[in-house]
Design brief:
The complex is a heterodimer.
Chain A (H helix, E strand, L loop, with lengths): L2 E7 L3 E8 L4 E8 L5 H10 L9 E5 L2 H7 L6 E6 L5 H4 L23 E4 L2 E2 L5 E3 L3 H13 L4 E5 L8 H13 L5 E3 H4 L5 H31 L5 E5 L5 E3 H6 L7 H16 L5 E6 L4 E7 L2 E2 L1 E8 L2 E8 L2 E3 L5 E5 L5 E7 L18 H7 L18 H16 L3 H23 L11 E5 L7 H8 L3 E4 L6 H8 L2 E12 L5 H20 L7 E12 L6 E5 L9 H15 L9 E13 L20 E9 L2 E9 L8 E3 L2 E5 L2 E5 L3 E5 L5 E5 L1
Helix pairs in contact in A: 1-7, 2-7, 4-5, 9-14, 10-11, 10-12, 11-12, 12-13
Chain B lengths: L5 H25 L3 H4 L4 E7 L5 E4 L5 H21 L7 E4 L11 E10 L2 E11 L28 E5 L2 E2 L1 H9 L4 H29 L1 H24 L4 E9 L9 E10 L2 E5 L15 H15 L13 E4 L17 H19 L14 E7 L5 E6 L29 H7 L2 E8 L15 E7 L4 E6 L20 E6 L2 E3 L6 E7 L4 E5 L14 H9 L5 H8 L11 H12 L1
Parallel strand pairs in B: 10-11
Antiparallel strand pairs in B: 1-2, 1-5, 3-4, 3-6, 4-5, 6-7, 8-9, 9-10, 12-13, 12-16, 14-15, 15-20, 16-19, 17-18, 17-20
Helix pairs in contact in B: 1-5, 3-7, 4-5, 7-8
Classes of the chains: A alpha+beta, B alpha+beta.
């Protein structure tokens, strides 16, 4: 028996996907999440697949870290810093919340009386001007413990250039600190820029007790079920890691859940023959998009969780805009229609939920237009949606103000929302030099499929691919994801006259370190790939471009090879190269990726047999392009492989509704995916 | 042509703003000098073909440029009207502060967008170049008495003629800067941004057509005007006066008054600065266009929801006579323009606080503190460290002021200490919040900062252009003022301070000697004795306030363990009120 289970714990539901590698069969489960007691739902979900002790591997995408950051529910942390620098976390980069408006203050995750200074100093070139005094460090550590700190972060200025003082202080602290929640910035992020490094290191400490306790609860639960298999966590970079690594670097779980979804989306699309994909996840309050080019999800170096809370670690690049199903449509003081960013969320939710909101949302507009089935609400918590209330809200708040018919107003709401989503897609594609006509949009989660047809047209995308089970994409990603570990190091080397050994040495060190973490992660891999990237710029610039270094085994790195790669990357990002200006390598980035055995996605396909006609569910009046249209309704999961459906049509399944605009065609492929194209 | 329908307008608004945003982002990422790349001292937008009025701005552009760009494009339009010969593929370059500029460091690139052989609109880019000659590296010459000491003035010239760059102009620019490579990098970054904007706008015009987009521009302006009129109409009619002072002009040690009489009449507003001090000898003058731009910034911070285009200025009458330092002509020096506009913005906040106390904003720290250190490395190469420094924002009805924020005229982030230390032979010995710097209030101001920098080489020179050394950021609605700005340095004769408060040039430091800059916090909002005692106690626990100051300034008794002694506090506050 070799069964591997992916578990995605969301705010409302826990989704699970189980793959049996011997029989190549696949099953899914959905149970309620219990906020604060996720372990109960987690174990209950696993039991749906039989005895937990019979499972061989569990991979988990978690939002525990994300929620702790967003809700400020991390640990009480202590910080030890260089004399003169205890306020770096609070002073940020001297920014403010909004371009316009001067309101709002900021509270850092570490209180000022828990940030202690010690005498030590490293210079920018790595020279130690003043070593630490172990007694002074010990006194500071004890003082922080006495003040109630549960985790400790040691953050010294210029530690990226030389971590010796931090490491010496760390040894002193470890001998005193009562738990493992002790870290230093040179270990977490040896990269120049003290605020970003301090923020990442402090947030890591802030999450360590939270994520550590959470994993301990899950592991205890698994033990009590006599489970003896492996247990892994998905990181923000879309790779999985051991729970030991997750305990040490919990800040790398900040985008764990959505990252797993993007990984699955990339795999599903690749198997179906699409290597350029834009993923789209429409939730209650936001719309998240990511780009996958040539089968590889785009990564970003840094994200801002909230004002002043910066996490700098490689992660799947997810662009979020405030337009979700619960986003409120309104006419502003200038008489212009807008949707969001204010949202009714899932509580009270759209007007149609009857839970107290009276202002129309995007979901209300979709309902009024007949696109959502009022009698079959997704999620199964409500019996019926209140179309009349939704219509009255749109009539009152939008149609009257704009002098439009209520149906036209509802269509306008959807169109404005579609434009916002289209803007986010353009941002991740056109702005990065990609042509949308080469890309397929892949919705996951419940809501995206309502809009993919329209987005296909608005942005000029090639096609849309709706996975067979959009709701469990993240759980599926847990099963598919490779094992991955990233290391970064600021090197600051001039390219002119580069001694390649000065790059080779740290590159080999980081590669060995990253590979050993992947090797000891405890999941079978077919091979381990090492990727090297350099962040480079023209001397004088402060921003960098990321330059992938095409190294083959045994091939030596040369300055010429690096220059060539830099000019390609720079040329892609900007229109003008600057010949004659000196070039510098700022940061070295190494990733080790343990490739997991391929997962045959055919396991998801519908069973053989069945006919297109049997999937028909009659017709319904749905509003398209200015008028009511008699529209075919289909039971999506009953459509056989090879079936073709023409728009206008609505395809319904328990966790999603797919809107097929007039002029679009949907074909069910061999994997059970719906491929939507024009014509 | 009737206006496009409501939905198309909403769509086009988003698409056009995205173009300007992308231009901003392109320049930030490809610029050379940190004032653009890190501090985002730049702005892009689309401008009206015949008036130069702002049609569309990015959402992230430097606020003060957003207001000034229309004047820059108008300067080019006026030049073309005289010279003729405008062609597709032309791009103008200039930095003239008196003709639609701000100060000499800000270089504008203005490019016409042609459709079917006719001028459709303009796109423009502005960015702060690090050095363009003059007596002081990096500009900001606190001792300048005319424009010629501040750097090289370039009137609008065709840098690119029908697609062909005139490299002679680049050569002239290079020969007049201490850092020609940096300027060349920034110029290329701005050209990257214009290329991208032109391409994106072309695609949008291909999709929607010129007529639809032109009428959308009109609708955007009408919308902004309508919103602004509605906001003004909601204020009570009357004249509200407010004044504040600059320490001095760096040459003559006398305060300079910025005085405003703000009149609300129905849905119109008049901003009358006639009572302001006359033009000054030093670099604290500003041009008329800069003065209008800073009014725009102030109003936009108060009426945040009004869109950023020319329409919002339509209901406003400006009275800014040439007899004041707010409408200076060439060759009056303007290098310290930031200080004057920050004071003028504060004065508008102060006057509006009287008209609408429920929206009142206490004064932000209000000085950019342009501090530069320079010298020679052991190998003989010159180095310059230059940055603007942060301070506290003012308390508002909603919250305490932000600690260590940026100025209202910018969205600049600060270069990290580690970047500054890696680039220059200096060492920060302190980078911290400045205790006691915040104005007291029910919502106190944010805290300013202390930066202490040690020279690692002999013969290091320091230059500072700052303000608020003698007139502190004010509080509103009963809140009190913040601390003064302070600058000092170690010398062989002990610790010294500038005779002109926060302005000094060419202070000599030996290796191991330090300069120390202590910046103001923000003013407070509301009476201090109305502050929640728990918040007072929190400040005490955070070492931002001493127990004695809590007692004296807030009438709150904080016990030895950092908690509030509520009974004693209530008794004390009752006594204070009595």
């Amino acid at each position: 028996m070799t069964r591997i289970v992916g578990v995605d714990v969301g705010g409302t539901f826990t989704d699970l996907a189980c793959f049996d590698t011997e029989t190549a069969t696949f099953s899914v489960a959905k149970v309620s999440s219990n906020r604060g007691d996720e372990a109960t739902g987690f174990l209950e979900g696993l039991r749906r697949f039989g005895a937990i002790s019979d499972l061989s591997a569990i991979v988990h995408g978690t939002t525990v870290g994300t929620n702790a950051l967003l809700e400020r529910k991390g640990a009480r942390i202590g910080v030890i810093t260089t004399a003169g620098f205890r306020d770096v976390l609070e002073m940020r980069r001297r920014d403010r919340r909004e371009t316009w408006g001067l309101s709002g203050d900021f509270v850092p995750v570490a209180d000022r009386d828990l940030r202690l200074e010690v005498n030590e100093r490293v210079l920018a070139d790595g020279t130690i001007r003043q070593p630490i005094d172990p007694d002074e460090i010990a006194a500071a550590v004890r003082e922080l413990l006495a003040r109630g700190a549960e985790a400790l972060a040691i953050i010294f200025i210029n530690a990226y250039a030389n971590g010796a003082n931090e490491h010496a202080a760390l040894e002193v602290a470890k001998a005193i600190w009562p738990n493992d929640y002790v870290g230093c910035s040179a270990d977490i992020l040896p990269e120049i820029r003290e605020f970003e490094r301090a923020s990442t290191t402090a947030l890591n400490a802030y999450l360590q007790p939270v994520v550590g306790d959470y994993l301990a609860r899950l592991e205890a639960g698994l033990r009590s079920e006599a489970y003896e298999g492996s247990f892994h966590i998905v990181q923000s970079n879309g790779g999985v890691m051991s729970t030991a690594t997750a305990r040490r670097l919990p800040v790398r779980t900040a985008l764990s859940g959505p990252a797993a979804g993007v990984i699955a989306a990339a795999a599903i699309a690749e198997a179906a023959g699409f290597s350029n994909v834009i993923t789209a996840d429409l939730g209650g309050t936001s719309f998240d998009v990511s780009l996958v080019a040539g089968g590889e999800p785009a990564l970003s170096a840094q994200t801002t969780i909230d004002f002043g809370l910066v996490v700098r670690t490689p992660m799947i690049e997810i662009t979020t805009i405030g337009a979700g199903g619960g986003s409120i449509a309104h006419v502003d003081a200038g008489g212009f229609l807008d949707v969001g960013p204010e949202s009714a969320g899932s509580r009270p939710g759209p007007v149609a939920y009857g839970q107290g909101n009276t202002r129309p949302t995007l979901t209300d507009a979709n309902l009024v237009l007949g696109r959502i089935n009022a009698d079959k609400p997704i999620g199964g918590k409500l019996a019926r949606l209140d179309v009349e209330a939704a219509m009255a809200a749109i009539a009152h708040h939008i149609a009257a103000a704009l002098g439009l018919d209520v149906m036209v107003a509802a269509e306008a709401i959807v169109r404005v929302a579609n434009e916002k989503m289209a803007g986010a897609i353009r941002l991740v594609s056109i702005e990065r030099g990609h042509d949308p006509a080469d890309f397929t949009i892949l919705p996951f989660g419940g809501g995206g499929a309502l809009h993919v047809g329209a987005l296909l047209e608005t942005v000029g995308l090639k096609s849309a691919l709706v996975p067979r089970y959009p709701g469990i994409t993240s759980a599926l990603g847990c099963i598919i994801a490779d094992i991955r570990h990233d290391e970064v190091l600021t090197v600051n080397l001039a390219l002119d006259g580069l001694d390649p050994a000065r790059l080779e040495a740290p590159m080999q060190t980081l590669a060995r370190k990253a590979r050993s973490i992947v090797e000891t992660a405890g999941l079978p891999v077919e091979r381990i790939d090492t990727q090297v990237e350099l962040d480079m710029h023209y001397v004088g610039q402060t921003h960098t471009v990321t330059v992938p270094l095409p190294i083959r085994d045994g091939e030596a790195v040369t300055a010429e090879m690096i220059r060539h790669a830099f000019e390609i990357a720079y040329g892609k990002a900007f229109s003008r190269l600057l010949p004659g200006v000196a070039v510098r390598i700022v940061t070295l980035k190494v990733a080790a990726i343990g490739r997991r055995p391929a997962f045959d996605l055919k396991a998801l396909a519908p069973a053989a047999g069945g006919s297109t006609a049997d999937a028909a569910r009659g017709t319904r009046q749905v509003w398209f392009a200015g008028g009511m249209t008699t529209t075919d309704i289909w039971a999506r999961l009953e459509l056989p492989v090879g079936s073709v459906v023409h728009g206008p049509a609505i395809l319904e399944q328990p966790d999603s509704t797919i809107v097929l605009e007039p002029g679009l065609t949907a074909t069910t492929d061999a994997f059970g995916n719906l491929i939507i194209t024009r014509g | 042509m009737t206006a496009p329908d409501a939905v198309t307008l909403a769509v086009l608004k988003g698409r056009l703003e995205q173009i300007a945003d992308e231009m901003d982002a392109t320049l930030y990422r490809s610029a050379f000098n940190p004032i653009i790349a890190e501090a985002r001292d730049a702005c892009h937008g689309l401008y009206h073909a015949t008036t130069g009025a702002t049609l569309v701005q990015g959402t992230k552009g430097l606020p003060v440029f957003v207001g000034a760009m229309a004047f820059a494009v108008k300067a080019v339009i006026d030049k073309v009207a005289v010279d003729g010969g405008l062609a597709e593929g032309d791009t103008f370059l200039f930095n003239d502060p008196y003709d639609g500029g701000t100060h000499l460091n800000d270089f504008r690139l203005v490019r016409p967008i042609f459709r079917n052989g006719a001028l459709f609109c303009w796109i423009a880019s502005v960015g702060h170049w690090i050095d363009i000659g003059g007596n002081v590296p990096g500009g900001f010459n606190a001792r300048a008495t005319d424009s010629f000491q501040e750097g090289v003035r370039i009137p609008p010239v065709k840098l690119i003629r029908a697609g062909e760059m005139n490299h002679d102009i680049v050569a002239i620019l290079s020969a007049n800067s201490r850092v020609p490579v940096s300027n060349w990098g920034d110029l290329n970054g701005q050209l990257n941004a214009l290329a991208l904007g032109e391409r994106r706008l072309g695609e949008l015009l291909d999709t929607y057509g010129e007529a639809t987009i032109a009428s959308a521009f009109d609708a955007f302006m009408a919308r902004a005007e309508a919103m602004m009129r509605a906001r003004i109409a909601a204020l009570p009619d009357g004249t509200y006066s407010f004044e504040d002072f600059l320490d001095n002009d760096g040459i003559v040690d006398e305060p300079l008054k910025i005085a405003l009489d703000l009149t609300i009449q129905g849905e119109n507003m008049t901003l009358d600065f006639s009572r302001t001090s006359p033009p000054c000898a030093g670099p604290l003058n500003i041009a008329y266009s800069t003065a209008v731009a800073c009014c725009y910034v102030a109003l936009k911070h108060v009426f945040t929801e009004v869109p950023a285009n020319a329409g919002c200025l339509a209901p406003i009458t400006f009275i800014i006579p040439e007899t004041t330092l707010l409408a200076a002509k060439h060759p009056r020096p303007v290098g310290g323009y930031t200080e004057t506009i920050l004071r003028a913005i504060g004065v508008i906040f102060g006057a509006l606080a009287k008209a609408a106390p429920e929206r009142a904003i206490a004064a932000p720290f209000g000085t950019i503190n342009a501090l530069s250190l320079s010298g020679k490395r052991e190998n003989g190469n010159a180095w310059v460290m230059f940055s603007f420094f942060g301070g506290g924002l003012g308390g508002t009805p909603a919250s305490d002021g932000l600690n260590h924020g940026n100025n209202a005229i910018s969205t600049a982030t600060m270069p990290p200490a580690e970047i500054l230390e890696a680039a220059s032979p200096i060492l920060f010995t302190q980078w911290a919040l400045r205790e006691g710097s915040a104005g007291l209030g029910e919502h106190r101001g944010g805290f300013g900062a202390i930066y202490e920098i040690e020279a690692l080489t002999d013969d290091t020179s320091a230059f500072l252009l700052g303000e608020r050394g003698r007139f502190a950021p004010f509080g509103v609605a009963g809140g009190s003022a913040a601390a003064f700005n302070r600058f000092s340095w170690e010398s062989d004769n002990g610790r010294l301070e500038p005779p002109m408060a926060s302005k000094v040039t060419d202070v000599k430091l030996r290796k191991g000697q330090r300069v120390r800059l202590e910046t103001p916090g923000g003013g407070g909002w509301g009476p201090a004795t109305a502050r929640d005692p728990e918040r007072v106690a929190r400040d005490v626990r955070q070492n931002l306030l001493t127990p004695d100051a809590a007692l004296r300034d807030y009438a709150v008794v904080v016990a030895g363990d950092g908690t509030v002694d509520l009974a004693a506090t209530n008794a004390l506050r009752a006594e204070t009120r009595a």
